[in-house]
Write a structure and sequence with these properties.
Layout lengths: L10 E5 L5 H10 L5 E5 L11 H17 L5 E3 L2 H14 L4 E2 L2 H9 L10 E6 L1 H6 L1 H9 L4 E6 L3 H6 L6 H11 L9 E5 L7 H8 L4 E4 H12 L15 E5 L3 H8 L11 E3 L3
Parallel strand pairs: 1-2, 1-3, 2-9, 3-4, 5-6, 5-7, 7-8, 9-10
Helix pairs in contact: 1-10, 2-3, 4-6, 4-10, 8-9
């Protein structure tokens, strides 16, 4: 590729807090020559309980902060922001924007059962994400025969945020919450919140081996792969990866909580910014 099509600028990712770090880990490992700038809007977390209008406004403000830092692309590493703010952001952004919902839907649509019968896909997420109808909409665009069963799981985020992943109460809460899905004969279950992969083990045990769990992090990495070299110019070959972290509040808490979401990636210097 011509040297003029290389770009050392970072790719920006953002989430309402720390959940998007699961996406950061996936893309940072997949693209070791690319640099990434992550912003967690920790002053206003969670987005999942906010109105659509508020989430859209937050999404545009956070993205503007990253754009002012010179990013060459944006990854909305938050399901709620992807559901409620992505369209407005794409309409205004001067750089390509990737959300987490469309890639996750494509992965779920590919998890079809034997015999070619219509797939049954479950979606779990925050109240705002589920209420938006974004997942059923995009799944229907891919294949109208897909049957979608959605369920809000409002307790999952605070469990992860408080580090209760291995607490004895977690299995009971996850089982009780997912009970409405047990009889739905699902072929796939989309983890429609970037916090939920931290609970993937207990969710998988609860739902059983026949249900494919769709973690959007890997799907986003696939989507970014399609953009690099096309809409987004890749970093020069051999470039050293740089990871930087911004938050809107409580940097120390972010660093502490980050260890529950990513492994092998050091979160050291964290800058507090005003939006």
């Amino acid at each position: 590729m011509d040297d003029q099509r290389h770009d050392e600028r970072p790719i920006g990712l953002f989430d309402s807090g720390v959940g998007g770090l699961t996406v950061l880990e996936a893309v940072a490992r997949r693209f070791p020559e690319e640099s990434f700038l992550y912003l967690g809007d920790t002053a206003r977390v969670p987005y999942g309980t906010k109105s659509a209008r508020t989430v859209e406004r937050y999404t545009l403000q956070v993205a503007d902060c990253l754009l002012r830092r010179g990013v060459k692309g944006l990854v909305v590493a938050c399901n709620t922001a992807s559901a409620l703010g992505l369209a407005a952001l794409r309409a205004q952004s001067p750089v390509p924007v990737i959300g987490v919902i469309e890639p996750g839907c494509r992965a779920a649509a590919a998890a079809r059962p034997d015999g070619g019968q219509p797939a049954r896909v479950g979606v779990i997420g925050t109240r705002s994400t589920v209420a938006s109808g974004a997942y059923p909409y995009h799944l229907a665009m891919l294949d109208p025969s897909i049957q979608v069963i959605s369920l809000a799981c409002p307790l999952f985020v605070p469990l992860v945020e408080e580090g209760w992943v291995d607490h004895p109460a977690v299995r009971m809460i996850v089982t009780d919450t997912l009970t409405p899905l047990f009889t739905q004969r699902l072929d796939a279950l989309i983890l429609g919140c970037t916090h939920y992969p931290v609970l993937k083990g207990v969710i998988a045990e609860t739902m059983g081996v026949r249900v494919a769990l769709i973690d959007s992090s890997a799907a986003v990495a696939d989507e970014l792969s399609r953009h690099l070299g096309g809409l987004i110019a890749p970093a020069p070959r051999g470039a050293a990866q740089r990871l930087a972290f911004l938050v809107t509040d409580v940097a120390d808490r972010f660093k502490e909580t980050a260890t529950r979401f990513i492994s092998g990636i050091a979160v050291e210097a964290v800058e507090v910014v005003d939006l």
